[in-house]
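Entry:
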Amino acid sequence: MAPQPVASPGYWQGVWKRLRRDPVTLACGGILLLMLFAILAAPLLAPADPFQTSMLRRLRPVGTPNYILGSDELGRDMLTRLLYGGRLSWFIGITPVVIAFGVGGLLGIVAGFAGGWVNMLIMRVTDVFYAFPSVLLAVAISGALGAGVFNAILSLTLVFIPQIIRVAESTTTSVRNLDYVEAARGSGAGAMSIVRVHILPNVLGPIFVYATSLISVSMIIASGLSFLGLGTKPPEAEWGLMLNTLRSAIYSQPLLAMLPGLCIFVTSMCFNLVSDGLRAAMDVRN
């Protein structure tokens, strides 16, 4: 009896197989999932009201009975504030990247596939925004629009769209010139069919991986905007704003003042390492 052919594993099966051999990516992904569960379940896990103040219980140190992580400058429970603050920090950090992924990816693919004057128009406008450093551009836009969550998200979205456009355009241009795309075009396939069948499956992966690497940058810049008073407004809980309000306690309760910064550091580092792991796993050469 002739041996039965063995089906070769698919691309995504290979990606998952490589991810399972990467303990750092798995560990960071697990930490992010735990943090996501904690902030989503904040109403169930938080031991107190995030807005309840008490000047008699202000700046309680970490480990105080009934205040596991201490209390802030207004006597509010720090564990509760960190849980609720994570909600806003994650929302402001991830939402601009998601919007930029959709808008910037679409514009970059159009520019890369169409070429000619369409590419010239989109990329020259992109270069105007890309010429400014991300932090300075975000601060300038937020300063012009004013403080607020919506304005912070809008400023970060405008910062990240040009970056994703560049990656999407470069990836699409390289795929557009491959032999199988030329063969599809020569066989009479329409532009939309070529984009849907041949372009999108090959460019969405690299664009997505690059977008995930921007989440860590977005969270840091968003926290910086709140720290400067250009993002979230008091009394809302947000890690960057909490760093600002606790900066006066750095000498009396340094560990307490470091907690929001530690949350920002761990979250951004985990997103960065997960992005690196995804990039390595999606590289077919591995």
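Confidence is low (pLDDT under 50) at residues 1-8.
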